[in-house]
Amino acid sequence: MSEEREETRYDVRAFAQAYVDADEDGESGYMLGHESYSAAMKVHYQQVLAGLQDLFEFSWDLAGLRSGDSAFWSLFRSLQGSYHRTVQPVARYAEAGLLYKQLQERGQYETFEAGMETIAQSRQQSAEAHLDIMTGLLSAVLGDRSAKVFTSADLRAIGIDDTAPTLSDHLHDAWENY
């Protein structure tokens, strides 16, 4: 009995998200202390992006851009970098239990928690706004191709498996480095 998997749909917004996720300097899906998992996620994101570039017949290759599209490329790259710069203040902590305990002991945990919730909400709004603009830029450059929608099956047909690695497949690294 074969396992049926849900097909992911890839529209122009998902294509923009793929650029963000595959960004060499970005951290989408990466986890501090899980180097093997992080490396696998980076490869995964880059492979999905490569597949979508093939399917949409587009890459931000400066040599291949139409006249006038280089300004879009510059803004797109700027947005891609900006997307990753707004993070939770404790995002780089491998373990923040002691910090949380000290905040509780000093009566500041509720203030901290409320502030973190506000930051998380504004981070989500910022991410959505970045993707809105990036989607618009891609749509402008792609023209009619921006209406296309692809699926996991389309990626598999060109040799790309869009199944993301799982953290559990890479937990052995955490124990080896412990």
Show the helix and strand layout.
Blueprint: E1 9-10, H1 12-22, H2 35-56, H3 70-85, H4 97-105, H5 109-142, E2 150-151, H6 152-157, H7 171-176
Antiparallel strand pairs: 1-2
Helix pairs in contact: 1-2, 1-5, 3-5
Choose one word for the global shape: globular
Mean pLDDT: 86
Helix content: 55-70%
Cα-based radius of gyration, to the nearest Å? 19 Å
Q: Numbering strands along the chain, what is their spatial order in the largest sheet? A: 1-2
DSSP summary, beta strand count = 2
Poorly predicted sequence stretches spanning 5 or more consecutive residues: none
**SSE pattern, N- to C-terminal:** EHHHHHEHH
Describe the 3D structure.
The chain is mainly alpha-helical and 178 residues long. It has one domain. 58% of the residues lie in helices and 2% in strands. The protein contains seven helices and two strands. Strands 1-2 form a two-stranded antiparallel ribbon. Helix 1 (12-22) packs antiparallel against helix 2 (35-56).
